[in-house]
Design a protein that fits this description.
Layout: E1 4-7, E2 12-17, E3 20-23, H1 37-49, H2 51-60, H3 63-88, H4 93-98, H5 100-123
Antiparallel strand pairs: 1-2, 2-3
Length: about 120
């Protein structure tokens, strides 16, 4: 028996594994882009809760670029929200000079709220 055979009907190559011919399938190559924490969280969410979407993106070779785009959008949204919330709540240099511990506590609260908004709107949606 031949090690490899080609099926003209479907255009696939098959490799002999034991007594069976298994199709030689490969995933399309995609550009490697760095994925930050937001993209990693979204990948985990897709794997656990949206398996069909995850598989479709993976097999189409678009998962990495999709996650990198989500990561970029989430980071921009987070930064914008922190800035807007800080301005709305009066986080100023004067407060920083008067009471740094109060400023640190309020900024931590603002960052946590911004993180929850980003998670709800982009990452776990």
């Amino acid at each position: 028996m031949d090690k490899y055979i080609y099926d003209e009907r479907n255009g696939l190559w098959y490799e002999l594994q034991g007594d069976y011919y298994i199709p030689c399938l490969t995933l399309p190559t995609e550009e490697e882009r760095p994925i930050g924490i937001w993209g990693q969280q979204h990948r985990r969410y897709l794997k656990e809760h949206k398996k069909a979407a995850y598989t479709m993106l993976l097999t189409n070779g678009k998962l990495n670029s999709y996650l990198a785009d989500i990561d970029k959008q989430a980071e921009e949204m987070f930064s914008r929200l922190v800035k807007q919330l800080a301005e709305r709540e009066g986080m100023t240099e004067a407060l920083k000079a008067e009471n740094q511990m109060l400023l640190i506590g309020r900024m931590a609260n603002i960052r946590n709220r911004a993180m929850e908004i980003v998670n709800a709107d982009l990452i776990f949606a």
